[in-house]
Specification:
Blueprint: H1 2-10, H2 14-35, H3 39-55, H4 66-85, H5 98-106, H6 116-130, H7 135-147, H8 151-158, H9 162-195
Helix pairs in contact: 1-2, 2-3, 2-4, 3-4, 7-9, 8-9
């Protein structure tokens, strides 16, 4: 079925390609959402993915699923977009906002009333910690720990070997843990100086 749709789209059947977009855009948007928070960037990535898919349909041989093929294109497209943005992750771990400091202060204890504001601060802090990772390490960690994807599923989505996925996830967890320790150390120094 996928191969038939791809072949029809290759020969210019616009309705066949529209069906591919309709059928697989939720998956492409899901992949793009792992890399970008802003809706406009997710949409830009999805458009780029389907443009690449359209121009590369001749390379789809039907060995795997069309969804898997599109997932690989989406992953690579998003990784390239992140790389080209040339973000400097080192600068994101240093200065905590007042909300993030407050959220960290609450963490050793139990927060009785989770709120939307607390969730947003926690999400921002998680994004800050993840930003110390390469896009590839972010992808591995988010898929495994964030989406409960198996090592095999991550390997299929990225085209990496299973051992490479395991190594990337291990290193990513270690880097995030170290970044959190630095962040907490920086925060404790701020508290100590304020107390003096």
């Amino acid at each position: 079925m996928d191969l038939d749709l791809a072949r029809q789209a290759q020969v210019g059947d616009e309705s066949a390609f529209a069906e591919i977009v309709r059928r697989y855009s939720p998956r492409v948007f899901s992949v793009a959402s792992r890399f970008f928070r802003q809706r406009s960037l997710v949409e830009e990535a999805a458009q780029e993915v389907f443009l690449k898919a359209y121009t590369q349909l001749g390379k789809f041989e039907g060995r795997g699923s069309l969804e898997g093929w599109l997932t690989r294109i989406a992953t690579n497209t998003c990784l390239n977009m992140v790389r080209s943005s040339k973000r400097r992750p080192e600068s994101t771990v240093s200065d905590l906002t007042e909300d993030e400091s407050s959220w960290l202060d609450q963490q050793p204890g139990h927060v009785d009333q989770p709120s939307v504001e607390n969730d947003l601060v926690a999400t921002d802090l998680a994004d800050r910690l993840l930003s110390v990772l390469s896009p590839e390490d972010q992808q591995a960690l988010l898929m495994i720990d964030g989406e409960d994807a198996s090592i095999k599923e991550v390997a299929e989505a990225t085209g990496w070997s299973e051992s490479k996925v395991k190594v990337r996830a291990f290193r990513a967890r270690k880097k995030v843990r170290e970044a959190m320790e630095r962040l907490l150390g920086h925060r404790n120094k701020q508290l100590d100086s304020a107390a003096d």
